[in-house]
Amino acid sequence: MIGCGSASGVSIPPFFVFPGKRMNSDLLNGASPGASGTMSESGWSNTDVFRKYLKDHFMKFAPGRQGEKIILLLDGHRSHVAVDLAEWAKQMNIIIFVLPAHTSHILQPLDVACYGPFQRIYNNLCHKVMRQTSAAITRYNICEIACKAYSKALCAENLHAAFQRTGIYPINKEAIPKEHMIPSEVFCSQTVANEDGNDSDATVEGGITTNAATPEDLFEKQTLKLKNVKSKLINKPRKTMSKLVSGKELTSDEVCEAIQQHIKDQQKPTKKPAKKTAKMSKLVKKSPMKKSVSPKPGPSHINLLASSESSCDEDIEDEEKCCVCGLFTPTALANAVSITFAKWAQCDGMVNGYPCNHWTHLIHCTNVRVIRRGDTFLCPHCEVMEE
């Protein structure tokens, strides 16, 4: 799913990418107004999908189109970088700015304050659907569930907080602590060399040389050697597309020319192909051909807003929450980064002649782990009354 929101608190309707070759309208059953989608062979976004998203979907709902320019912030995923997209963006008064590499977890607004709440709300809605309807989550109902979670997670409040926390709007250079931007210690440490050029049994700590007199110091010395090797490797110049566009305006003439030159350099043969021998030709015939696949999503991290931790439980009725902890999602699973399903059980007890019908988390809020068919389950309140 491709999501987008503005600093003014307006969210672009979601755009879904399904695996397949032909789009089926049934996949968008229950979609929110404006939501759309397309297909790709892998189910991931690629340059063609992103081009379709910008031209056919984004332009319909982008605010401020009365001759005003729009700044579109993107990460450096390869599907976002294309010369034809940059030329088209210039014509449409859109400035595409690529965030610096490896900073999306602290600079990309939706990663910082929206996708964390979206994941929790989506997980809770999946639990609710499976529990109430005994139906599985399939490609034909996932759009309806995701749209509900999207509208709640990308609300105006969360979007305002997202751009404020990243220091983008209002502009605040102090929003990101400096220690979050400094290089890792792995690339700053050094070993000490003797006068003869050999490594010594000493390490440098804050400018002070200490002798390696303990086993811990000896291990530290070997660790610093490894860090030194990594430092040399990381400082080696690399000719990659990410280095050309990282932290720059993609729609500028200089960047577009650099991208075109990079593509030409990649197409030039570096070495003459070696002549095939009989053995090599046999190996080529036997080796399986690799299928070309669309690029997978980049390493964007999920950050959870402390102010949005309870947002997923606010819209859930009290009858559907656990009678012990008063929550829909157990505290132990609240910050899980993967989909984890909580086990529930409904009380079979009677209170003043009426069924209790309280729901309770198994394992987390009771000592009961499994309920089998035909078993009678009592919530902790009914157990106390019965005793």
Question: How would you describe what is shown here?
Answer:
This protein is α+β, with helices and mostly antiparallel strands and 387 residues long. It folds into 3 domains: 173 residues, no CATH class; 50 residues, no CATH class; 70 residues, no CATH class. Helices cover 35% and strands 13% of the residues. It contains 13 helices and 12 strands. The strands form 5 sheets. Strands 1-2-3 form a 3-stranded mixed β-sheet, sandwiched between helices. Helix 5 crosses helix 6. The chain is globular, with a radius of gyration of 28 Å. About 10% of the residues have low confidence.
The total of beta strands comes to: 12
Tell me, briefly, the overall form. Answer: globular
As a percent range, the share of strand residues is 5-15%
**How much helix, percentage-wise, in residues?**
25-40%
| H/E topology pattern | EEEHEHEHHHHHEEEHHHHHEEEEH
Low-confidence stretches: 184-212, 304-312
Give a quick rundown of the structure:
The protein has helices spanning 47-61, 83-91, 104-107, 109-113, 115-133, 142-153, 156-165, 215-234, 241-245, 253-267, 278-286, 311-314, 380-386; strands spanning 2-5, 11-19, 36-40, 70-74, 94-98, 191-193, 199-205, 208-211, 344-346, 350-351, 354-355, 359-361.
